[in-house]
Specification:
Largest sheet: none
Structural class: mainly alpha
Shape: elongated
Number of helices: 2
Order of helices and strands: HH
Radius of gyration: 18 Å
Distance between the termini: 43 Å
Number of strands: 0
């Protein structure tokens, strides 16, 4: 899968690497600012008890 993604991206290897880094940063941004806060409203880790 990663090889297919690498072949689809345009440009020389350094441009591809830059595109992959930007895409990874965008995914992490989306997770931290949209997905994780939404999930934290559903899951309450403070209410977990172990006996």
């Amino acid at each position: 899968m990663y090889g297919a993604l690498w072949r689809v991206l345009p440009g020389p290897w350094w441009v591809r690497l830059l595109i992959v880094i930007v895409l990874l940063a965008a995914v992490l941004y989306g997770l931290f600012f949209y997905v994780f806060p939404w999930v934290s409203d559903i899951v309450y880790p403070q209410e977990v008890t172990v006996e």
